[in-house]
Amino acid sequence: MTAAEASRAEPEAGRAEAGRAELSAIRRLWARAQRTEAWRAWQRYGVAQGGLLAAGIGYFSFFSLFPAVALAAVVFGFILQGRPDLLAAIGDALNAALPGFVKTDANPSGLVALTAPETATLSWTGAVAIVTLVAGGLGWIGSLGEGLRAMFGVRKHPGNIVVAKVRDLVVLGLLGVALLVSATLTSAVGAAGAWSAQHLGLGEHPWLVGIAGVLVSLLVDMAIMVVLLRVLTGLKLPWPVVRAGALIGGGAMTLLKLVGAQLVTRATSNPVFGSLVVVVGLLFWLNLMAKVVLLSAAWAAGDLDDSGMPSTRAAAAASTQAAGRDMAGPDDADGALDGASGGIDAGDPRARAVNGIPNLGVRSKDRVTLAAGAVLGASAAIAGGAVRRLARPRQR
């Protein structure tokens, strides 16, 4: 090798060595990331088909949302007839959780208004309507509970159907109480901020009131996550596990609510949506919130695996195993709680039947395909009509 060739080979060898070092560093970082709790939660979320569950929860929530909010309007409108300020605060709190959904002074284009119920609402006909609204709200709570239990590997509903419905009803009531507490504390923080600005000279520091409001929202969201993980799932989870999931989920929900309006507006800015922008925005938002809740549950499930306490896993599985024995016999109760690395063979009809997963026949698959095609066809027709209207020249 000549001196010129040697001089050219040295820089190339140096670059190759630097490239190998960079690749090795990237691999180490990637391996370290895969050992984090966040990555394990994401892996568990994927193994449990969290994306599909979140889509189903969001879709179910959309149809249960109208009766649930209508029920809240009747209850809060009746209780707070003499407190329009608190009723307005509840409307703002609902708009923070569901951007643009409730009609308020700041959002006159909302879909539902919080007003005092009419006299007819309190009659027997109104009572029947309220029962219907409660049933609709319970549908959303039930689907959310199924998704949360799936993150822990629980494939069967713990307890009998009556206990499950009572639990869902309690959770629905607790969510309403949390909404009322959030609105009350937010109003109290606003009043305290106005008083301090007038008497303590803190008018130049409005950010203090903003921070206090965020802390109140964080505490309420964490309490909601505690209710979802500890009560709605029906599993006997230890407090450290619930606390970790509540902290992650509550913080994520608070952060999303701070940027919710801008996020939904950006996601639905396509002019093709037209008058469907509110519907599309709600579907997007509900799906996003469902993903946050399920990921938080997956994080808590990872902490449950790391606890190193066999009795902890047994306590979480006890109610599910008992429910399996009550509803399907002792043989069907085995494997009610799978580990993070466990699973079933989805192609095995017997495994699907044992784990409570429906085995669709050929005709059932055809009906599902036909229904999916009809939905896609209708969506394409709506989108095509919107595009044609946009492309049509305006008449002067």
From TrEMBL:
Superkingdom of the source species: Bacteria
A single Gene Ontology CC term: plasma membrane
Pfam families named in the record: Virul_fac_BrkB
Compartments, record wording: Cell membrane
Keyword Hydrolase: no
Species in which this protein is naturally found: Candidatus Phosphoribacter hodrii
Keywords: Cell membrane, Membrane, Transmembrane, Transmembrane helix
PANTHER family listed in its UniProt record: INNER MEMBRANE PROTEIN YHJD (PTHR30213:SF1)
Transmembrane segment boundaries: 52-79, 122-148, 169-195, 207-229, 241-260, 272-290
Residue segments, region Disordered: 315-344
Protein name: YihY/virulence factor BrkB family protein
InterPro entries xrefs: Virul_fac_BrkB
Compositional bias of kind Low complexity: 315-327
Protein's membrane topology: Multi-pass membrane protein
